[in-house]
Amino acid sequence: MEGPLLVADTTSPDLSGAQLFNLANDVGEHHDLAATNTKKVTELTDDWLRWNKEMAKPLWGPGAGGRGRGGE
């Protein structure tokens, strides 16, 4: 995922931009499998959301518009 760190929506995350690749067969990430493997996308999303809830809240603010040093 790209962009600033935000509070995860654990109730109904938007998976419309999800991508899924088989890196063993497609190391260049040319063939997105998300549309044909929605069950796996949902499973991985659930795992990530569960893991993300366990992380400590950052002690810093977004600063520089949330884009890093110098507003990059």
Structure description:
This protein starts with 37 loop residues before the first helix and ends in an 18-residue tail after the last helix. The longest helix has 17 residues, at 38-54. It has a domain at 20-54. The chain contains one helix and no strands. Mean pLDDT is 79; it is low at 1-5. It has one helix spanning 38-54. With 72 residues, it is mostly helical.
How is this fold's topology laid out?
Layout: H1 38-54
Largest sheet: none
SSE series:
H
Give the N-to-C terminal Cα separation: 17 Å
Q: Any idea what the radius of gyration is?
A: 15 Å
Oligomer: single chain
Which features would summarize this protein structure in a list?
single chain, 72 residues, mainly alpha, 1 helix, disordered N terminus
